[in-house]
Amino acid sequence: MPVWDHRKLLAAFALAFSLPALASDLPRHTLQCDGRDLEYLVYVPANQLGPLPVVMLLHGAGDQAENFIGAWKSFAQKKQIVLIAPQLPRDRSLEEHIPKILPCLVAEVEKRSSIDTHRIYLFGYSMGGYLAYDGALLDSEYFAAAAIHAMGIDNDYLSIIQRATRKIPIAISIGDRDDLVSLAQVRKTRDLLKKSGFPVEYKEIFDHGHNYYEISETINEDVWHFLGAKRLP
């Protein structure tokens, strides 16, 4: 079943998850990319010295870009990382536009900030993780590396792995108590990526469910430890 049909994901955000306060100090910007009107947030660290790496943040179903970028802000200031967080509608038609939308957003931010084009990364969670696979595999020569938390590739879409023109490094993590995303499917995704020659780092987090925000600081550190060392050739 495609990620867009995971009704439990949306219900979980609405009813169960304790989300952080919105990062209201960051204004939303609007941009049209590939015929789609998008809202997005940008965080640029203070006292920027030289071109900085970029992490594109793709949130889960029913969440807000403010929450997701808010979970990264203090870490990004410390590590000097530019953050871009689009507001993602729960709309299946968005998926076909992702390979053009994500570079379009980076190009817009590059007009106002100095970024290192060899160090542009993806991090996606839940539904955002599903879209991060699209970006990583269909834009494999644009993004230096990708990290996905709590999501695998759907069986009907596994052929996307063969469409990548570069073996992009990918980190995958999931809680061993995630009751919203199939652990078996995430393991299958890992195995198929490895079999196809992709450098994959895989982690099952002990006693963790689906809620990224419960341990976001730990996840973010792990994600950056993986991403930050990767560069496009």
Care to describe what's here?
- The protein has 233 residues and is α/β, with parallel strands linked by helices.
- It has seven helices and eight strands.
- The N and C termini lie far apart (36 Å).
Secondary-structure map with pairings?
Elements: H1 7-15, E1 29-33, E2 36-43, E3 52-58, H2 65-70, H3 73-79, E4 82-86, H4 98-110, E5 115-125, H5 127-138, E6 145-149, E7 170-175, H6 183-195, E8 200-205, H7 216-227
Parallel strand pairs: 3-4, 3-5, 5-6, 6-7, 7-8
Antiparallel strand pairs: 1-2, 2-4
Can I get a quick summary?
This protein is α/β, with parallel strands linked by helices. The chain contains 7 helices and 8 strands; from the N terminus they run αβββααβαβαββαβα.
CATH topology call: Rossmann fold
Overall shape: it is globular
Number of helices: 7
| Widest β-sheet, arrangement of strands | 1-2-4-3-5-6-7-8
Number of domains: 1
Strand/helix succession = HEEEHHEHEHEEHEH
Low-confidence stretches: 1-18
Termini distance?
36 Å
CATH architecture descriptor:
3-Layer(aba) Sandwich
Q: Biggest β-sheet, characterized?
A: 8 strands, mixed
Characteristic key phrases:
233 residues, alpha/beta, Rossmann fold, 8-stranded mixed β-sheet, 8 strands, 23% strand, disordered N terminus
